[in-house]
């Protein structure tokens, strides 16, 4: 998985997605419509031409609101924890993750970073430098990511998201984390979760990203996230998000799907 990537999404149907967690920090620029993201009794609201952030490892309730005519559209930069850590060593810690900015210079830097990340021939150090410029403009606007999390749940999520279609077992994941299976089970239980719950959530979140940022058939998406049965996948998806996979792409009062475009290689909320 690339440390940095960019995505574009379109969504015609208004929907609310609860407890979404990203393994990477996200910088969002809304192009049409409105995005709200709630966490810890606070709300981030983004309108067109404004930039905000979603922190990694934190559960958000996200709503994407299409405009009266057309689809909700946004672009996002997905940033690895290491990139943020390197910047935080140089820039004093200040700012608020719930601030937004519409500064033309920050938006221009965002567009340059999007172009850089969509160029597969550009060296990684130049790709990171383009994202770094965006982070610096955000810091100037008092928008700042908190310290990247390194707890066990975060480490496990980062492992599972790399291959959600793999036939993961608790023992296999524990081995990758240099833990015994019993220790992993015990520590997850202490966090109020289980391996199977985390795996299911990772798979559903990845599926949501694929639906929002690509045009793969639903059956193919089911396979991409580890389900051989599309009907079982659709049932699990509805249980998790309250609507079917096809409804994510379908306008509220229209049976036609929505046009989706994708940049880069990694989906996000």
Automatic annotation (TrEMBL):
GO terms for molecular function: DNA-binding transcription factor activity; transcription cis-regulatory region binding. Keywords: DNA-binding, Transcription, Transcription regulation. GO terms for cellular component: cytosol. Residues 245-269 are annotated as: Disordered. Pfam families: HTH_18 (PF12833). Residues 154-251 form the HTH araC/xylS-type domain. InterPro entries: Homeodomain-like_sf, HTH_AraC, HTH_AraC-typ_CS, Tscrpt_reg_AraC-type_HTH. It comes from the Bacteria. PANTHER family: HTH-TYPE TRANSCRIPTIONAL REGULATOR GADX. This is Helix-turn-helix domain-containing protein. It comes from Pseudooceanicola albus.
């Amino acid at each position: 998985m690339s440390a940095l990537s960019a995505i574009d999404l379109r969504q015609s149907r208004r929907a609310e997605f609860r407890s979404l967690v990203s393994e990477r920090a996200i910088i969002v620029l809304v192009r049409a419509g409105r995005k709200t993201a709630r966490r810890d009794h606070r709300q981030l609201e983004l309108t067109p031409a404004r930039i905000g952030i979603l922190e990694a490892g934190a559960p958000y309730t996200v709503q994407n609101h299409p405009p009266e005519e057309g689809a909700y559209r946004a672009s996002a930069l997905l940033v690895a924890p290491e990139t943020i850590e390197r910047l935080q060593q140089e820039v004093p810690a200040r700012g608020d993750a719930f601030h937004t900015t519409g500064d033309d210079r920050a938006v221009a830097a965002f567009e340059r970073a999007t172009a850089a990340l969509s160029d597969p021939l550009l060296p990684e150090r130049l790709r990171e430098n383009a994202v770094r410029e965006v982070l610096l403009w955000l810091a100037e606007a008092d928008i700042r990511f908190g310290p990247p999390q390194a707890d066990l749940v975060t480490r496990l999520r980062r492992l599972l998201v790399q291959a959600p279609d793999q036939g993961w077992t608790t023992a296999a994941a524990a081995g990758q984390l240099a833990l015994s299976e019993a220790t992993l089970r015990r520590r997850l239980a202490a966090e109020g979760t289980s391996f199977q719950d985390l795996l299911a959530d990772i798979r559903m979140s990845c599926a949501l990203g694929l639906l929002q940022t690509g045009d793969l058939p639903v059956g193919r998406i089911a396979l991409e996230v580890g389900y051989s049965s599309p009907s079982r996948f659709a049932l699990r998806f509805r249980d998790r998000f309250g609507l079917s996979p096809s409804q994510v792409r379908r306008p509220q009062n229209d049976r036609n799907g929505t046009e989706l475009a994708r940049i880069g290689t990694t989906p996000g909320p």
